[in-house]
Amino acid sequence: MKRSLFVSLSALTLSLVTAPAFASEVAAVNSNSTNNIVEISPVDLVNRSYQGFLTEQGIPSNGAFNRAVHKGRVTAQDLVNGAIASGRLAPETINDRAYLNHVNSQLRKINNN
């Protein structure tokens, strides 16, 4: 009895501790569209892009991502367009200068390393 209680509590604890893959993303309804759009922060967009989140949109991952950023082959607009295409950002985000500036800021941090 004690063993099954311990196993159950351990499983419950692990399920509460492990976060979903996109826990930092916030679901938001786009008022101009009937589809639900999952909004991702600029920091998460750059981090997820590095991790391969946008490989289907032609954005390289890991070391190749860093090299592409250094050489100017990957820009904030590329990441935002990729996230729009994958349904993570509303199409209007491409015109959001504050969002693009924040993504650029994150990319500059990569360039400085």
Automatic annotation (TrEMBL):
The keyword Signal applies. Keywords: Signal. Residues 1-23 form the signal peptide. This is Uncharacterized protein.
